[in-house]
Amino acid sequence: MSKIIILGAGMVGKAMAIDLSKKHEVTSVDVDSTSLDYLSQNYNVRTKVLDVNDEEVLRTLLKDYDLVISAVPGFLGLKTMINVIKSKKNLVDISFLPEDVLHLDKLAKENNVTVVMDCGVAPGMPNYIAGYHNELMQIERMDYMVGGLPKVRTFPFEYKAPFSPCDVVEEYTRPARYLENGQIVVKPAMSDTELIDFPNIGTLEAFNSDGLRSLVYTLNNIPNMKEKTLRFPGHIRLIQAFKAAGFFDHQPVLVNGNSISPFDFTTKLLFNSWKLNPNEHEFTIMRVIINGLEKGIRKEIIYDLFDEYDEKEKLSSMSRTTGFTATATAQMILDGVFTDKGVFPPELVGKNAKCFDYVINYLKDRNVIYQKTERII
Predict the structure, then answer these.
(1) pLDDT at 253 (0 to 100)
(2) First to last CA, the chain
(3) Is residue 201 domain-resident?
(4) How far apart, in Å, are the Cα atoms of 278 and each of 79, 112, 162, 255, 316?
(5) Phi (first) and psi of residue 13, to 5 degrees
(6) Do 33 and 12 reside in the same domain of the chain?
(7) What is the CATH number of the domain that holds 358?
(8) C-alpha 303: how far from chain center
(9) For 355-370, what is each residue's pLDDT tens digit?
(10) pLDDT category, 35, cuts 50, 70, 90?
């Protein structure tokens, strides 16, 4: 049994705490005591109210733990990662922080720690998949699309956010990078919309977002890579209107003598509209498509994920698929399957077949199943 501390007790943080508490001594920390109360009252999880911005208190607390998982909002991610590394603790991070953190590799090595970043459903699993197959074949193209959506479509957004609305808005505003013929292309988020049909779901709308993240640099031997986000048709047009009207601007505006950030105001309202209600059913869908040459044979390999709300544990699909990728990675580190020191995006872990198989099997044991199909083309 190891001692694990999870920073953040939101929907994903809660799922990770529940999963790991079945085998380990787990402590969850958050600024919101409500989230913590649910865990302490219903599961064998220790809790502590803590603001991760308090560096001295955080570092003192971390001394007693074997591994740290960071599930803080993205804007807190970098500072938190640096503090954990300086505390000489192994870290699995799902904060979706906007900054490039690969430059922290030297700091992690100096402190003899293992850090795996972007370790969720996406980014996360597509990275593991790409890293694994990049060792087995010459990949010419990789595309993936992913979305978390409510089962019941409710006007006007037909969307519910399984994590921080601030981080969702980041997907809608951060320029999207992808690789085309070996060159990095930058386009506005929400560009190049297209309609795609999925079995048992129907038609969804895909649009450019910045989900490739580290893949743009670490696997730049793959000439063509693109990531898109999935929503119900019509949703993104509404969000584009919000953006065009300035609702996502960070520059404060004066309203009746008061200085207000449009971004803060909008996300506050969206939090109410997008918040998943207790026990509300939703699903996660993802498709990863890889094309290339394997031992001289041209192949197409597809991984499909369709996961739904867990009635038994009362956990959202997005919290399961995101959180369990992180807990799989955490357990893999604790088991000594991955021991390299430094900062690693999942693709640099997944290139090790043992690590890839470990994560896939861990998820399968929790009924998060990636259906793999391949065909000669």
Answers:
(1) 93
(2) 48
(3) yes
(4) 31, 41, 11, 35, 9
(5) -60, -40
(6) yes
(7) 3.40.50.720
(8) 17
(9) 999 999 999 999 999 9
(10) confident
